Amino acid sequence: EVQLVESGGGLVQAGGSLRLSCAASGFTFDDYAIGWFRQAPGKEREGVSSISSGDGSTYYADSVKGRFTISSDNAGNTVYLQMNSLKPEDTAVYYCAASYYGLPKRPWLGDEYDYWGQGTQVTVSS
Question: What is the pLDDT of residue 16?
Answer without folding.
Answer: 98
